[in-house]
Design goal:
alpha+beta; Deoxyribonuclease I, Chain A; 4-stranded mixed β-sheet; 3-stranded antiparallel β-sheet; 9 strands
């Protein structure tokens, strides 16, 4: 959809359409080992450009001590706050819940909402210890109607998806 005089990155939307995007941010980094690159700043620009009412995010880090140390000396550095708060465009509400806790930090699902949110729920759907999975359940008040958003990060193993 092309913008109609609303400025860069903003498009005109129909008032009766709720725009939803989903994005696995892979913990804000790309690659592994010495080739690992920090991508969280680019992701922030990308999410803002989506101009969605709701943005469902998977693999969002609340914190990660080792990566924070590794990237603290890069040009823009590791964000001081959790990735969900960092990525939220101005004026958006944030819901986050942890799915997995590791030695260096934790990560989970998040919802960024242009509209007010209610009480946030989290449901563990892990079926084995190697993949910690969860559903983030967030009621969103959109134009006076309660809409239930569920952010899912499902398992990679076939038997996990069948369950």
């Amino acid at each position: 959809m092309q913008g109609l005089g609303l400025g860069a990155g903003h498009t005109q939307h129909s008032a009766d359409v709720l725009r939803v995007a989903t994005y696995n941010i892979h913990k804000g980094v790309r690659g592994i080992g010495p080739r690992k690159r920090l991508e969280i700043h680019n992701l922030g620009l990308g999410i803002e450009a989506l101009d969605a009412d709701l943005v469902c995010l998977q693999e969002v880090r609340l914190f990660h001590q080792r990566d924070a140390r590794q990237f603290q000396r890069t040009l823009l550095g590791w964000p001081d706050e959790g990735q969900a708060d960092y990525l939220a465009p101005e004026g958006y509400e944030v819901a986050y819940r942890t799915n997995a806790t590791t030695k260096h930090g934790e990560h989970g699902n998040a919802l960024l909402s242009r509209w007010p949110i209610g009480d946030v729920g989290h449901h563990d759907v892990s079926d084995h210890r190697f993949e910690q999975r969860g559903l983030l359940h967030v009621p969103v008040w959109w134009q006076g109607v309660e809409v239930h958003a569920v952010v899912a990060h499902l398992g990679l193993i076939h038997s996990s998806r069948v369950r």
